[in-house]
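Revision sheet: structure tokens.
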Amino acid sequence: MRNFRRAALGAALVVLAGLGASLAAQPVQATPPAPASGAAVPAKPITDPYGAARPEAKTVITSAQGLVAAGQWKKAWDSLAAFDAASADPYILALKIQLCLKGYVQTDAHLSFALVDLAAGESLLALREAGDRGNLVDFDPFGAVQAISEATPELPPVLLLALGDYCYDVQALYADKWQVGEEEVCSVALSSYEEAQKGGLATADSLRRQGDLLLRFSRNDEAEASIRASLALEPGNLDTKKSLAVALAQANRLSESLALMDEVVAATKAKDERYGVLMTAARIASMEGMARAETYINKAEQEFPGEPGPALVRHMIALQTQGPAETGQAADRALDLFPESPYVVRSLLTTWLNADKADEALAFLDRNLARQAKDASLAILGFYKALLIAQSRGPEGFAEARAVLASAELKFKAAFPAGDQVFEAIANLRAELADQPAEEAPAGPAAPAAPATP
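Predicted:
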């Protein structure tokens, strides 16, 4: 559960980085797909998405759907793979994609998946959290659909819907760390949903996701219409209400947005879901100022005392809405709560560096090297100060960085056992800081990170 929230926090931080420009996560230099022409909702919706499959394929699909209903995910996959190993049939491929998206217990970058047959009392969520079960099978839906589209230009709506779902999940989980750029993935997701809808196929989920993607491309009116259409199909869906709140906020209808978010916060009971809801509410509320955002951040800190996310979000919002003094205070507060966390220090520095404010980051390190008392905290701060000096000043700062690193190493030796991997990280950084001609000096990454970090 803790790892789940850390992953969710990472996604939230990426979204929040663009708060000053837009509430929705924005693809970098994205070229928006052209708006769909004509009415969004087709006159004759499809009632059986797989109804147009050839008879022999339809028989296999119906059987596989029955296996899925019984929790037999691997048997369902095996039956589809036995019928069409090459994924050449668009309807078989569509169900394969949905099987993997909904039924995996393990995945590697959504390019290979492990499926299992559930025993009585087992759940997919529990197996995913337990990890390490099942054999991964290579399966690249993005490439498979591309291969089919070269031979069959007009894809059936059910395959377009599956491709939209796949691309939406990929961008949510991996952002720009996937094999295809985030801009292209988001564009394919949106165009797939739009084409599926024009072909007569849309669900409450696809309409909500389509709305989320439309927000990314600043097609705000269409986004709100799509999200409201989803809500009309499932009026109590909290995820859809949250999406609508974001759309309203992006349209500067803050009172409506926050009223809706308060409703979602009150109705959300599950811990992991509640965490994300409070973070969304905080970033929306920040548009009215830090005081309003603090309402949700404080609540998140009370309910999730072991999670650094709320404190990091407070710092990010302070950087976007307040001055250096308030931003520094927010960072100090985060460090006071988690004084021995390399993750917190690294995240705070990354936020400053992404805003091109290395001077404020360095001031934070200097200030806390003077005010913190624990050896582990001083060691971590010193390590990152050495790294920041080297990255911001280049070879001219290497001598100072080496001296800072030497002091940090003494603190590490006092706080960590000999042989801890942190000493390998120190040795790697020291090697990088060795005297060398300026033209051969390694260029530091944009954010403070080492080959291995303490």
